[in-house]
Specification:
Layout (H helix, E strand, L loop, with lengths): L3 E5 L5 E6 L7 H12 L8 E4 L2 E8 L2 E7 L5 H19 L4 H6 L1 H11 E2 L2 E2 L4 H4 L54 E15 L5 E14 L6 E6 L3 E3 L11 E3 L1 E4 L8 H4 L1 E4 L4 E10 L9 E9 L5 E9 L6 E10 L4 E8 L4 E6 L4 E10 L3 E10 L4 H4 L5 E8 L8 E7 L6 E16 L2
Parallel strand pairs: 8-25, 11-12
Antiparallel strand pairs: 1-2, 1-5, 3-4, 4-5, 6-7, 8-9, 9-15, 10-14, 10-24, 13-15, 16-17, 17-22, 18-21, 18-23, 19-22, 20-21, 23-25
Length: 442
């Protein structure tokens, strides 16, 4: 049983506030924000309490999504409700940003009125709610498939590449009255997140991959969709399938709406997609990396005659030549007494800066082609440099995105819709790999 739902910006601004039962006053919003900001940890606990009032929150899109309750309700139920609420608002508003929430506050209040009745959850189904929601979403910018000013997660460099940008799937779902004029499109995204630890000797010590197949549908009349995976797709230690390179995962789970009668034989998923976004499949691969690690670092750290700390770093991208990494950020911890930095970078499209507050050098690379190598020479002025302070360098952590690439090798063979859609319709399949945690010891 939920007492209140409210949404706050990262700065504590009140964006949405809904009180369902009148059990707690609106001062609970300020109480929650003070409790969150008073904690030194970057990730405050999901569940917090103040007297008889319990706060359950998640953070998505840089916003706090909070539900309060005075009853002994299951926190897992409320967390699941908040996750479904954010997915629902993303379907109707197009994105989960502060600007989008402010522009669509009337729509969000209408959704809350339908989703929760006197604290009791009624439904979070997009298909059911579209029959009752009357308020239209307000988009900050008209959608254009070939607008290259807003290259997103999956990026399109040229109009001729014909790759749908992430912005094309970040628009509200088409309403039941069809007034938004959106195209009939369906997006199937294969998203993987990798956690890697590489030792100082270059040996791969840990490699975990978590992935999902996510569908976002803008078709009002699609009764069934068939998604064909690699014929060589294997779960666990089972025998190899097909004649090509095996694509193996350790664990796999499916959405309850997925039909698996053709999965064992043909690796085909059958699903009746509802308008909006849903995750049809999740998988995990532990302690294995079927492909070479995307990045290797070759460091040289020494002390020069002037008492400065010299760090010469060579970073190699081991992706295939046709692939590339984008938004690469290399974080290098340095001694706490570091004063200033001078640098020599191998190309002009790189940049680096010393962040004294974080005691680290941040080296940023916009685009890193596969099979190439970049280098950087950092000269650090360190107060009282000693052998002990040189040991404070590292480990190095990387964050990056790999568009049109999956580490497991999972691919979509085909995407078929039935019945055949009247009029023009488009189907998009996109791949991306994120670095969840990528650490190199030096």
């Amino acid at each position: 049983m939920i007492s209140q739902v409210f949404i706050l910006s990262s700065k504590g601004d009140h964006l949405i506030y809904k009180d369902f039962r009148g059990e707690a006053g609106n001062e609970s919003v300020n109480i929650f924000y003070k409790m969150v900001t008073a904690l030194k940890d970057d990730q405050p606990p999901v569940v917090m309490s103040r007297k008889d009032l319990h706060f359950v929150h998640i953070k998505q899109g840089g916003l706090y999504w909070v539900a309060t309750t005075t009853a002994d309700a299951s926190p897992f139920t409320i967390i699941e409700f908040l996750n479904r609420l954010t997915a629902l608002i993303k379907d109707y508003c197009g994105s989960l940003t502060e600007k989008s929430v402010r522009m669509n506050f009337a729509l969000i209040y209408e959704l809350l009125d339908e989703v929760v009745d006197y604290g009791y959850i009624q439904t979070t189904s997009t298909d059911i709610l579209k029959n009752f929601i009357q308020t239209e979403a307000v988009s900050s910018k008209p959608f254009s498939l070939f607008d290259l000013s807003n290259v997103g997660l999956f990026g399109a460099e040229t109009q001729q590449s014909k790759v749908a940008q992430s912005a094309s799937a970040a628009r509200p779902i088409t309403s039941s009255r069809g007034e938004q004029g959106g195209k009939n499109e369906i997006f199937v995204d294969v998203i993987e997140r990798m956690s890697v630890v590489i030792g100082s000797n270059g040996v791969l010590m840990k490699a975990d991959i978590v992935g999902e197949i996510r569908v976002k549908c803008y078709m009002p009349s699609c009764s069934e969709m068939r998604i064909g995976l690699n014929e060589e797709f294997s779960i666990g230690k089972s025998q190899l399938r097909g004649y090509g390179a095996v694509v193996r995962v350790d664990e796999c789970s499916f959405h309850q709406a997925v039909k698996l009668d053709e999965f064992d034989s043909y690796r085909i998923l059958k699903v009746c997609p509802s308008q909006g976004e849903q995750t049809v499949m999740q998988y995990q691969l532990c302690d294995d990396l079927p492909t070479p690690a995307p990045f290797r670092l070759f460091p040289t750290i020494e002390r020069d005659n002037g008492g400065r700390l010299l760090m010469y770093l060579k970073l190699r991208c081991d992706l295939p030549p046709k692939s590339s990494a984008i938004n690469v950020s290399v974080n290098i911890p340095v001694p706490k007494n570091s004063l200033s930095l001078s640098q020599e970078l191998s190309s002009p499209d790189q940049k680096a800066e010393l962040q004294p507050r974080n005691k680290a050098i941040v080296w940023e690379i916009c685009r890193f082609p596969g099979g190439s190598q970049l280098s950087a020479l950092f000269k650090l002025e360190v107060s009282g440099l000693s052998s002990a302070s040189m040991l404070e360098v590292g480990p190095v952590s990387l964050s990056f995105e790999l568009p049109k690439y999956t580490c497991t090798g999972l691919q979509i063979r085909f995407l078929r819709l039935s019945p055949i859609q009247p009029g023009p319709s488009q189907r998009w399949v996109r791949y991306v790999t994120h670095s969840d945690s990528y650490t190199i010891r030096i």
